């Protein structure tokens, strides 16, 4: 079996496994009072070139939902893309953690919405009969595998600021977005107006570790209590933090992301040359969405390639995701098999 289902299908980077073994030696203070967790906070401040407040959690859903919980009241509205993970794939967790806030999905090409669309959605939404505008959430890289540029983020932030809204970034694939462009972590976040980042690691080599990075100090006032109440304050926090520390050490996170992106680029390039195959979105990170003939999809599956169908069945659309573990030979084999099934 060769899997292109998800970067979640990948294993754990050896460097991170070794860090867990090392963290398992001797006692450590619980609930985040350990030395590793303190070092992670300091390291992320270096990465983002500013003071930050850091809260390790185990899942991206927790990171997103808890981030929004400190930005949005129960009667608030969170503006997000109609394909956003918080809207489509988190089983109502953001609504639950915020106490009932409403997600307001916005349309936009290639997984992104723009400042004009956001402004139009907010306009006239302040009456007592409607949910009150409270936050904006964007995904980086987007659910279509595309990247928000700093200029695009800044434009959204300008609209958000003008209306008193916070700006959250779901960065489950933040490393993939970062290496796709010539920008620093700071430029892609707080310098463009982001208030809170869900900093992903699991999809890019961790066992199960994410971090909420808050750039706006006031958001941290109640976060610790909400994390505890939500069941995400780990007693042995060092084992989450050890993963993030190893993830950041020697730019492992960037190297892993570069490999995943490069494999996606090779896959997209090969598929783009095959008759009957069309790419649905620009391939900017490590996700590919393609239209294929039904016979080709069935043939690839019969040959042992595993991937998800995506969108309406009639569209014959599939999603292919590469990871830090993707073997170039598997990419070549998939392209070769697809070419043999063309027509």
Secondary-structure element order, N to C: EHHEHEHHEHEHEHEEHHHEEHEEEH
What is the global morphology?
globular
List unreliable stretches of 5+ residues: none
Largest sheet: 7 strands, mixed
**Adjacency order of strands in the biggest sheet:** 2-8-7-6-5-3-4
Total individual domains? 2
Number of strands: 13
Return the average pLDDT rounded to an integer: 96
Question: What is the CATH C level class of the largest domain, in words?
Answer: Alpha Beta
> How does the helix and strand content classify structurally?
alpha/beta
What fraction, in percent, of the residue positions are helical? Answer: 25-40%
List the total number of helices: 13
Q: Quote the CATH topology of the largest domain.
A: Aspartate Aminotransferase, domain 2
Name of the CATH homologous superfamily of the largest domain:
Type I PLP-dependent aspartate aminotransferase-like (Major domain)
């Amino acid at each position: 079996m060769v899997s292109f289902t998800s970067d979640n299908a990948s294993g754990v980077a050896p460097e991170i496994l070794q860090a867990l073994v090392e963290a398992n030696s001797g006692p450590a203070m619980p609930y985040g009072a350990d030395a590793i967790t303190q070092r992670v906070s300091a390291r992320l401040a270096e990465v983002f070139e500013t003071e930050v407040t850091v809260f390790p959690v185990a899942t991206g859903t927790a990171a997103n939902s808890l981030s929004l919980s400190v930005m949005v009241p129960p009667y608030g509205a969170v503006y997000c893309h109609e394909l956003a993970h918080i809207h489509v794939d988190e089983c109502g967790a953001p609504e639950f953690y915020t106490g009932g806030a409403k997600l307001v999905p916005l349309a936009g090409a290639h997984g992104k919405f723009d400042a004009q669309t956001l402004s139009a959605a907010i306009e006239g939404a302040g009456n007592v009969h409607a949910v009150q505008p409270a936050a904006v959430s964007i995904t980086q890289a987007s659910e279509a595998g595309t990247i928000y540029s700093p200029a695009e983020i800044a434009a959204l932030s300008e609209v958000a600021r003008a209306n008193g809204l916070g700006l959250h970034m779901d960065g489950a694939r933040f490393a993939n977005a970062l290496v796709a462009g010539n920008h620093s972590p700071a430029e892609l976040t707080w310098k463009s107006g982001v208030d809170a980042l869900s900093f992903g690691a699991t999809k890019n080599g961790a066992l199960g570790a994410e971090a909420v990075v808050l750039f706006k100090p006031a958001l941290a006032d109640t976060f610790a209590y909400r994390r505890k109440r939500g069941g995400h304050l780990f007693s042995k926090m060092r084992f989450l933090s050890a993963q993030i520390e190893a993830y950041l050490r020697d730019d492992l996170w960037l190297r892993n992301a570069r490999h995943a992106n490069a494999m996606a680029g090779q896959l997209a390039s090969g598929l783009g040359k095959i008759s009957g195959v069309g790419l649905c979105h620009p391939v900017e990170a490590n996700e590919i969405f393609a239209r294929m003939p039904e016979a080709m999809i069935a043939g690839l599956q019969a040959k042992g390639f595993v991937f998800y169908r995506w969108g309406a069945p009639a569209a014959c659309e599939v999603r292919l995701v590469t990871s830090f573990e993707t073997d170039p030979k598997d990419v070549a084999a998939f392209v070769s098999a697809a070419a043999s099934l063309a027509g």
